[in-house]
């Protein structure tokens, strides 16, 4: 679990609320309906229900999803390769493999699947994982675009109401509040929520894709019957300098 996302959001909103003092004047139901409700329904119109629901799961990856360290994946692949070379592919059955993508590849090795089919299946799985991530990123990118636009619509609505009731001083305040608060709500949704989520999801997608490339090469190396001692040298380019030092020390 990555608690940095939770800490970041809680700290940001905590700072904003503490700076406001009394938050009462900054809570306006018409403004919330225009920006939050309008953004939600507009994005729904641009999406499908499955995409809408799936986006929530993708967003949760910023909190719940754990990216494996490349050096740990290499160590596990070396161990699996050693077992396969010593006792045969069937000996890989029942091994504890937390990474689902690697587990799929090893399961196909145990089943005696041809190398070309293993490579094709893993490449297709990698593409589908990336496509699901991209769909979630595109969803929040849509929210980032729509929320400020709805804030501007709310501003125009508030100004029209205010100008249409200049003779009634009591109506000017609420109308002006709608005009300003909708802009603020749109800016908060886009900049405080969506942009950090998009950037973190993009980072997670890139790291997951790189790990899957590493696993694919490692699985295909094991399938070819290569010497596991060479596997680290083959895959070490996926590892940063700190991780390389760890692998070299373990060799």
In short:
The chain has 251 residues and is an all-alpha fold. The chain has helices at residues 4-20, 29-46, 49-64, 70-87, 100-110, 115-164, 169-224, 231-235, 241-250. The protein has one domain (28-70, 117-250).
Characteristics of this structure?
251 residues, mainly alpha, 9 helices, 80% helix
Overview of the structural elements:
This protein is mainly α. It has one domain. Helix 5 packs antiparallel against helix 6. The two termini are 30 Å apart.
- How would you state the average pLDDT, rounded? 87
Q: Which range does the strand content fall in?
A: under 5%
Query: How many structural units, i.e. domains?
Result: 1
Tell me the structural class. mainly alpha
Name the poorly predicted regions.
none
Main beta sheet: strand number and arrangement? none
Quantity of strands, as a count: 0
Helix content: over 70%
Rounded to an integer in angstroms, the radius of gyration calculated over CA atoms is: 26 Å
Question: Termini separation (Å)?
Answer: 30 Å
Order of helices and strands: HHHHHHHHH
């Amino acid at each position: 679990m990555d608690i940095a996302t939770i800490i970041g959001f809680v700290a940001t909103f905590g700072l904003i609320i503490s700076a406001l003092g009394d938050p009462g004047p900054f809570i306006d139901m018409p403004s919330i309906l225009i920006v939050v409700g309008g953004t939600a329904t507009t994005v729904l119109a641009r999406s499908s229900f499955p995409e809408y629901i799936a986006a929530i799961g993708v967003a949760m990856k910023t909190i719940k999803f754990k990216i494996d360290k490349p050096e740990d994946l290499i160590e596990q692949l070396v161990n699996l390769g050693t077992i396969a070379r010593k006792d045969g592919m069937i000996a890989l059955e029942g091994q504890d493999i937390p990474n689902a993508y690697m587990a799929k590849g090893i399961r196909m090795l145990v089943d005696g699947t041809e190398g070309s089919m293993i490579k094709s299946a893993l490449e297709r799985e990698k593409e589908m994982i990336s496509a699901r991530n991209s769909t979630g990123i595109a969803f929040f990118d849509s929210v980032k675009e729509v929320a400020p636009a709805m804030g501007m619509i709310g501003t125009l609505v508030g100004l029209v109401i205010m100008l249409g009731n200049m003779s009634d001083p009591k109506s000017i305040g609420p109308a002006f509040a709608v005009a300003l608060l909708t802009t603020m709500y749109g800016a908060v949704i886009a900049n405080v929520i969506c942009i950090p989520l998009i950037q973190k999801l993009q980072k997670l997608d890139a790291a997951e894709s790189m790990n899957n490339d590493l696993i694919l090469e490692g699985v295909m190396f094991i399938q070819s019957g290569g010497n596991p001692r060479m596997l680290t040298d083959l895959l070490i380019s996926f590892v940063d300098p700190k991780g390389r030092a760890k692998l070299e020390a373990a060799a």
